[in-house]
């Protein structure tokens, strides 16, 4: 016998602590549950639904692509893949792109590139990649090994060797680690780092620190790789997160917002680092016609609607609204930080916690997401309107008031 639509799923593995909400449809910045309740969505599939839900242009192009062809594999030329790679390289500092299905896969490709560069270009036998504490790079075995948060390691030891960690935005910590590692002989292959740490608490990169990283990488012939899975595709208020820091990395990884909700990831590199050959790396589904059509649509709409500038303006408005909220609850709210439409509201220690506030906000028909215990993230679609942001903060304030009553 079949189960009723509202019965809990019992045959899906228990890998998610899901909230009690079944979403059945959405439009723009709004979603609807099985009972017809409407929620204001400031999560956007965790920064993926760049154009919002059920975007008219996205629907038109994806339906057209399905009527044409959805998948062929990378055994053959893929025109949509070539077109998306051309768009990314034309609008960035990079020259070549590899496509996959997720941010973790893109970072896996970056790790393999860094190791091959170390072996082939620098003659390093046992390469090390330096990454930041509180960073997050994915949940595959290599990418959680590259993630500087021990909570993701527990139960999956031993970790993949070859990763060491420094304190984010801390020049002294980085210099000490670099010196200690290089004292063993040339060892450092790459630095893998987020321009803004998302999962680690919405920590924006410091311009002085990142310029120092670039100088050190140039001096030692180390690859500087940016994980832009969350910051890329206009979310920061600039097209790419590296635009906020005044430097160019040697490579970066993309996913999330690139596909507007359709799974796609990418590694983009400069020509001189194009070292991966046929047989070195591959993906059956990576960059298939359907996913690349989604990516092309997102990028072209980003440009046509000037959504990067819109994200910058809406980010400023959101900061203003959250600043007023912090002033109203100084005993419970610490402040805020972020770029564009990736903003974190910081809670004071010992009081409200992010998971509790997220659950209460959901009861007020607002979707937000934690970034640790003391930060809640706002990641709305880049198409969100000013009136919707104001309504989101009003609902958040009601949630806070109810928790404090």
TrEMBL record:
Pfam families cross-referenced by the UniProt entry: Aminotran_3 (PF00202)
EC number of the protein: 2.6.1.11
Subcellular location: Mitochondrion
Gene behind this protein: argD
Any GO BP annotation: L-arginine biosynthetic process
One GO molecular-function entry: pyridoxal phosphate binding
Pathway it works in: Amino-acid biosynthesis; L-arginine biosynthesis; N(2)-acetyl-L-ornithine from L-glutamate: step 4/4
Name of the protein described by the UniProt record: acetylornithine transaminase
Keyword Plastid among record annotations: yes
One term under GO cellular component: mitochondrion
């Amino acid at each position: 016998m079949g189960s009723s639509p509202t019965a809990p799923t019992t045959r899906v593995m228990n890998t998610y602590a899901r909230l009690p909400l079944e979403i059945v449809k959405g439009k723009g910045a709004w979603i609807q549950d099985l009972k017809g309740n409407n929620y204001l969505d400031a999560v956007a599939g965790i920064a993926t639904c760049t154009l919002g839900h059920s975007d008219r242009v996205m629907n038109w192009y994806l339906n057209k692509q399905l009527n044409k062809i959805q998948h062929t594999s990378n055994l053959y030329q893929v025109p949509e893949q070539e077109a998306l790679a051309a768009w990314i390289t034309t609008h960035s500092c990079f020259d070549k792109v590899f496509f996959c299905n997720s941010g973790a896969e893109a970072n896996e490709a970056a790790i393999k590139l860094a190791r091959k560069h170390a072996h082939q270009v620098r003659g390093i036998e046992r390469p090390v990649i330096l990454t930041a504490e509180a960073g997050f790079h994915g949940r595959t075995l290599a990418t959680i090994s590259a993630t500087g948060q021990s909570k993701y390691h527990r139960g999956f030891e031993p970790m993949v060797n070859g990763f060491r960690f420094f304190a984010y935005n801390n020049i002294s910590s980085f210099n000490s680690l670099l010196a200690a590692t290089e004292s063993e002989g040339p060892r450092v292959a790459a630095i893998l780092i987020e321009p803004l740490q998302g999962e680690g608490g919405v920590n924006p990169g410091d311009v002085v620190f990142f310029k120092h990283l670039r100088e050190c990488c140039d001096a030692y012939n180390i690859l500087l790789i940016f994980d832009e899975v969350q910051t890329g595709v206009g979310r920061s208020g600039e097209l790419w997160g590296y635009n906020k820091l005044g430097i160019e990395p040697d490579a970066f990884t993309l996913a999330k917002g690139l596909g507007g909700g359709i799974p796609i990831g990418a590694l983009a590199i400069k020509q001189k680092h194009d070292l991966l050959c046929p047989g070195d790396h591959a993906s059956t589904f990576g960059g298939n016609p359907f996913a690349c059509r989604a990516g092309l649509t997102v990028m072209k709409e980003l440009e046509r609607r000037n959504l990067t500038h819109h994200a910058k303006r809406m980010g400023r408005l959101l900061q203003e609204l959250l600043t007023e909220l912090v002033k109203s609850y100084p005993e419970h709210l610490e402040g805020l930080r972020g770029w564009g439409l990736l903003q974190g509201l910081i809670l004071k220690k010992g009081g409200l916690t992010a998971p509790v506030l997220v659950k209460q906000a959901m009861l007020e028909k607002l979707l937000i997401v934690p970034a640790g215990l003391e930060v809640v993230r706002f990641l709305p679609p880049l198409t969100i309107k000013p009136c919707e942001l104001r309504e989101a903060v009003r609902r958040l304030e009601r949630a806070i008031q109810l928790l404090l009553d």
